[in-house]
Design brief:
Helix content: 40-55%
Number of domains: 2
Largest sheet: 8 strands, mixed
Order of helices and strands: HHHHEEEHHEHHEHEEHHHEHH
CATH architecture of the largest domain: Alpha-Beta Complex
Strand content: 15-25%
């Protein structure tokens, strides 16, 4: 992992970590033992991180969800699954690299796994279009899911996208149809679907691979109908109000769990999943095991009925009619 990237609200922690690094350098070059001071500052840094992360605003959670060092789909696939064989192309137009997927095994169980992939450096981000999929990406995802259905394999999806790509080419190739088709087909797919929001769950771009029997959400991920910046631009004509929009949208895991839109919140290490990929993967594996146990023994008819009932239950309202 490259040098740790700190967000704006983490600057007090960044300053402490910088001092710790300086002391470690001095320790290696000096005969004086300053290990106790290093340990004291490390504990102070941990407590400060816990304190900051205990009072995060929705906008700060959004920043964490977008953190460039956060684990992406392939990081989770490599850690949680075995025998992964990537599959390419939608058999219509091209291979969209912003969605990756293929056959794998989860605890020895053959399955299909797929998700958005953003990319680590500039070259990879450009190739993967920053995780913003075009129609061919969603059609590739659907091809993989239909393949899983053919062979009776469960599907694991990982969501991490700002939204579907809104470019002219994507619209010409029918972006909205591709998203709508995926939602329609996933609603009636005759195998279990387990979805995890691992970073950003943005708009229809997220929905296209997140119709699931169990929907999990990493603690510091977000899931929304529109990005905070997009919402602010529409309501206030400026993206500067993104933090207000994030508050109003209700995009955090705890808010969505309270609304019944997700099933489980997966805890992240102190300071977020980007601080400790191994621990984040271990936490998610336990959650995926639990989710799999809940759907693995369901008959097809029961699975589809439960999924239908789940979709129909979305949405809450208050009757304000006067009596």
């Amino acid at each position: 992992m490259s040098k740790r990237h700190f967000l704006e609200f983490e600057q007090p922690v960044a300053e402490l970590e910088s001092k710790i690094e300086e002391l470690r350098y001095v320790q290696s070059e000096s005969a004086v033992d300053i290990s106790e001071e290093i340990e004291r500052l490390a504990k102070k840094s941990l407590l400060l991180t816990k304190d900051i992360y205990s009072t995060l605003s929705p906008w700060q959670v959004t920043q964490i969800a977008r953190h460039p060092q956060r684990p992406y789909t392939l990081d989770y696939v490599n850690e949680l699954f075995t025998d992964f064989q990537e599959m390419h192309g939608d058999r219509h137009f091209s291979d969209d690299l912003s969605i990756v997927g293929g056959l794998a095994r989860f605890n020895g169980q053959p399955c299909m796994v797929l998700g958005h992939q953003k990319g680590r450096d500039t070259k990879e981000r450009t190739a993967r279009n920053f995780g913003m999929s075009r129609p061919e990406g969603y059609r590739k995802a659907l091809r993989l899911m239909k393949t899983a259905e053919k062979f009776g394999l469960p599907v694991f999806t990982f969501v991490d996208t700002p939204g579907a790509y809104p470019g002219i080419g994507a619209e010409e190739r029918n972006q909205s149809e591709a998203i709508g088709r995926n939602i329609f087909e996933m609603a009636r797919l005759e195998v279990p679907i387990i979805t995890t929001i691992i970073g950003e769950g943005g708009s229809g771009g997220a929905l296209a691979i997140s119709v699931g029997d169990q929907v999990l959400m990493m603690q510091y991920s977000v899931y929304s109908v529109i990005s905070p910046e997009g919402c602010a631009s529409i309501l206030w004509k400026t993206s500067d109000k993104a933090s207000d929009a994030a508050e109003a949208l209700g995009i955090t895991a705890h808010r969505l769990k309270a609304l019944g839109l997700i099933d489980k919140i997966v805890s992240e290490p102190v300071g977020g999943a980007h601080r400790d990929h191994k621990q984040a993967c271990a936490n998610l594996k336990r959650a995926l095991n639990d989710a799999w146990r809940q759907v693995s023994d369901m008959k097809v008819k029961e699975l589809l009925q439960t999924r239908y009932d789940r979709l129909q239950s979305y949405g809450r309202y208050n009757d304000t009619k006067e009596h």
